[in-house]
Amino acid sequence: MMSSFAKPMTDGTARATRRPTRRKARGHVSGLGLLMMAPALIMLLAFFFTPVALTGVFAFTDLSTSTGIGRGTFVITPTDLRQLRDRGLTEDEALAISAATYSVDDAGLAAARAAGADAAFVDQIAERLTGESYEDQRDFERVLRDLPAAPRSPRAIKSAAEAFGQSVLNRRHETRDALAAQLDATAPDLSDAVRDMVLDASYTGAVFTTENFTRLATQPETGRLIANTALYVGATLSVFNVGLGLFLAIVLFYMPKPVTGFFSTVWLLPRITPVVLYTIMWKWFTWEDGFLPILAEQVGLPSFNYMKGSVVTAWMTMISVNGFIGASFGLILFSGALRAIPVQQLWASEVDGATRLQQVRRIILPQMRWPILFVTAYQTLSLLSSYEQIWLTTNGGPGKTTTVWALEAFKTALSNYSGNLEYGMGAAMALILVVVGLALSIIYLMIFKFGELVSRPKIEF
Amino acid sequence: MTILDKPVRLGLGAALLSCCAVSALAQDYTITVWSGGTGDDSNYRYDAIGMAAEILEREAEIRGEELNITVESQAWSGWDDFKQAFTLAAEAGNAPDILVSGHEDIGPWSEAGLIVPIEDYTFFDVWPLSSIYPNLIDVASYNGQIWGVPQDAEARVMYWSIPALEAIGWSAEEIESLPARVESGEFTLYDMLDAVKQMQDEGVIEAGMGFGPRVSNGPDYWQFYQSFGGEMADPETGKLVVDTEALTGMYQFFTDAAEMGVVSDTHLGTEWDSWHQNAASGNYGVWHGGTWHYAQWTNQFGLEDFFGTVQYTLIPAGDENGRANSITHPLVYLLTSAASEDEAMIAAELIAIASEPRINALHAVKSAHLGISEAETLVPIYADDRWLSAASERLAPHTNAIPNNSDFGTYWTAMFDGLEASWTGVTSVEDAVSEVEANVTQALGDDVIVR
């Protein structure tokens, strides 16, 4: 029996013998390979494609707190009737729909018995109230409660009352048909068009719409958000993630090894510190009575809450908070790339009398082009979608001056003071972020000439 | 043939039956309560439910039933995280049974089916619910149904530093008559700005500290909209109203205040603790907050002589269109649809008991919120509280509430965004107002009236 390990070997031999058609042979999908890849594929499906697909679907709905996330129910409320009057429902029709009559008759008594009301109670209703009718549910309930055999529980009284009632208002129905049947019983004279209009309006769940995108395209706030996001990503990327990261990597490259090790660890701290702890440290650092304001006071500079006290310092804080995390990423990557530069080139340049600056300009930077592009690309994408540190520090303030697209999407969909969470709108904003991210990825892949990177080496090893 | 003889079998049967009988009598319930916006002074928001459970258990015991109620409570200090947690938990099926939240949540949550009308589980014409002020019951109603039981009332107040007013030459009579002058509309918001500017110019109050408004979003800011004649909802149709003139007046007022240098243009977003500290230490000339802040300042922030150092009035009128006003923002006990029928019955009974004057007075006095019924004001601990009596008399009669409307959140968010944008100088007042108008009409269409 052939073990699965034998398979690649036979493949290898086959490839060697059939050299001209090698490309086709490589296209063969090995079962083991698929098995090994399965966890990654499942993860990709579960944590990337499904959320993106769901975001895509939700983006075209008006899903919000008031529609709920699940399937909606059907209920006609006084608010619906008020809104429908704007769309042509007449006063009489509204009155017919909202009218409630509770009449004690045989049908009602039978319904009450069927609903499981206490027999003695129903008998008493039959005996004392037959023929009576009431306009108001609360009045009827009060009369029922006065009966000696009335149950103690409000729920039991209410369900007994409902057996005699015909009100369609404020009654939740699982299906449109169920509500339609009730509506037909309450207001049989409605025309079909009006009836359908009422039933349509009674749906409490979310519906599909392109409204979110129209709103985003036309509201003036969108422009401000885009400008803020561009400033945030651009500044953090250029000053910290690439600029500072590269500067640190080069400085550390020229330092003795133990020093390099120590400083690399120190620069890693922002990245490995838990976000909440890290942001609290920034608060201690920048708030009134924090380190920076006290220091500023000592040297006679304006001393105030730097994190939220002015638009300029808020931006500086926000960019620094995120930048120091990104800088360590650049530092690691650039340090690795620097070590790959053949040290002989540097020695040779030193023999020629090159200064450090000349070495950096003529030897190091040209060879660092690829890692710099990579850090730029990777960090653009992660900065575009990051909001946690901003949320925990400036929270987009003062005013909305430091609010970026991702933070606004998060607040719209998941966190706001008035509690009216607009999931659909938030999803639309997130979808745009995904689309922008994908577009940028493609552009970066083209810049990197990704095809060349992954093509087979010209020399066979 | 059986192994056991008849008496033994009978005895076992009886024992088994009695076990069943006992277990049928003993009812165990776990009621979970989540309470938003709850700080150190407002523990009775959920502790009252615990006390009610004890009373209900004793009542059951007297009736010969065994009822065991475990109350599990969670307090949330903020609002954003609380509302997020509840809505997500409810969608995931993990919601608590009882919720303490602002009445404005009734609109969206009832439409989504996350809460159930509490009037289905309890009678509002029976004591103690029958004794609650009818206007508070209205605040807890939506679509013709009562969804919650108001837990407290409050008023939002303009506070004035008496020493600072004296330092700029106000006589005792002038300070004394200020509430009346504010109420009649004679003393406006702009008069206030002039006074705090004078305080700063004369060095009584530090620059930028003359006026200390609330530091974050909240119902307070709608008071300034009303000060300039704004109406939140049309009483006839119930539709939301965007009064552009009033919004302009309100935004302009805060922009002017920032330009005069009596408040910084980045004041929004200041930490609450530092605001409280400044308010309690008399660092602000004038500031506004809630009646309940009195409890925080006197208990936690070291304010000793409140009545000797602080004058309190309604929020003054802004111009001749508006009026001096105050907003009450009752929190309400809500029943969620996560509770089973039995649990909802128990929970509703607990809420009713917790609303009894003596228990509710504990919450009112400790947290400096106003009572919910006439009877509560007669409970000695409440009646003896100088601040509550004073606030009830001077402020409460002039309060109104924000509307229960599932779309109000959209309007609210847009209004506050506009305020922030114009206050910080990111946009002009006109642009901010037209942005609000555009956002709200775009989102709500015919359901909003623009004036």
UniProtKB/TrEMBL annotation, chain B:
It is found in: Periplasm. Pfam families: SBP_bac_1. Its main location: periplasm. Residues 1-26 form the signal peptide. GO terms for cellular component: periplasmic space. Keywords: Signal. Belongs to the bacterial solute-binding protein 1 family. This is Extracellular solute-binding protein.
